[in-house]
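My current task is to audit a protein record that another person submitted. Alongside the sequence sits a line of tokens, each denoting a local backbone shape. Please read both lines and tell me whether the tokens look consistent with the sequence. Do not assume that whoever made the record got everything right. Thanks in advance; the entry in question is below.
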Amino acid sequence: MEVRIAGVVRESVVDGPGIRLVIFAQGCPHRCPDCHNPETHDPDGGKLETVDNLLEMVKSTLLIKGVTFSGGEPFYQAKAFAALGERIKALGKGYDIVTYTGYIFEELLALSEINEDYYRLLQVTDLLVDGPFIREEKDLSLAFRGSRNQRLIDVSKSLQAGKAVLIS
């Protein structure tokens, strides 16, 4: 299976807790004004990469706590990112997965009723950073997000509760 990516950063400390490997999805329907990664918007940009190759990158990167799916919009390619997330979890290394999305959690729950791959991607995600970047809400003092409307969500607890459970 292939996934279209904008790139990979092997060791990041700003895209979730701990040292992380970050995979930037290519393609985003949200096109937020002042987006941090506008080069990821074009769904035909970036490059194709196999899930197998990305998994090998994860396995060969030492000292990481987990993997972050950023963007672009990972849910734009939910099937491939869900498959990659399932394979990362199957490694048994205890890696956590952070997923950034311009959707809000409640939208993703509704969309997952139409597309099971959205739900699969939610299931492998430990921490969801949801919501579009909003220029007027910009706040550089926030951990792992750019604007005050964006939430840090414990996905496992949220799926059990059927509503967003925030991490403070």
About this structure: The beta strands are 2-12, 20-25, 47-50, 66-70, 96-100, 127-130, 151-154. The helical segments are 51-60, 78-90, 105-112, 116-124, 155-161.
